[in-house]
Write a structure and sequence with these properties.
- By secondary structure, this protein is mostly helical.
- Helices cover about 60% and strands about 5% of the residues.
- The protein has one domain: Lysozyme (Orthogonal Bundle), CATH 1.10.530.10.
- The protein has a two-stranded antiparallel sheet.
- A hairpin with a 7-residue loop joins strand 1 and strand 2.
Length: about 120
C-alpha cells in the first residue's frame, strides 16, 4: 500500500487540496480540512490509542491528520479481516468501519480511483 499516493489522492478528492474546507456543514458532524475528517473518526482513534485529540489539532496539522486516518483505517480493516489496499482504505475513510461493504461508498471509490489514475498519468 502506497500511503503517500493514498493521501495525495484523498486530499484531491475530498477537498481539492483546500485545508480550510468544511463539508456537510448541515450534518451533526461536519467534515473538516484537507482530508475532510469528522469528529467520530477522531474520537475512535483517541479511544483506540489513548491520545487526547481535538478537532482543531487534527485538521490543521497534516501529519496528525494523516496519522489519525492511518490508525482508523488500519484498525477497522484488521478488525474485520480486510486487506488494506487503496479501495478498502478509501471506502473505510468515506463510509466508516465497514465502509468497503457499503454501496454508498462506491461512487467515492470511483472518483478516488479516477484521481489515482490521473496522478499516475501525470507522473509518467
Amino acid at each position: 500500500m502506497n500511503w503517500t499516493l493514498f493521501f495525495a489522492g484523498l486530499s484531491a478528492v475530498e477537498s481539492g487540496n483546500n485545508p480550510d474546507a468544511v463539508g456537510d456543514a448541515h450534518l451533526r458532524h461536519p467534515a473538516y480540512g484537507i482530508y475532510q475528517i469528522r469528529q467520530p473518526m477522531i474520537d475512535d482513534v483517541a479511544e483506540l490509542t489513548g491520545n487526547k485529540l481535538h478537532t482543531g489539532d487534527v485538521v490543521h496539522n497534516n501529519g496528525v491528520a494523516m496519522w489519525v486516518i492511518y490508525e482508523y483505517i488500519n484498525h477497522w480493516a484488521k478488525r474485520h479481516g480486510q486487506a488494506i489496499n487503496m479501495e478498502t482504505a478509501a471506502r473505510i475513510h468515506n463510509g466508516g468501519p465497514r465502509g468497503w461493504e457499503r454501496d454508498s461508498t462506491l461512487q467515492f471509490w470511483r472518483k478516488f480511483e479516477d484521481e489515482l489514475n490521473k496522478q499516475e498519468r501525470d507522473e509518467g
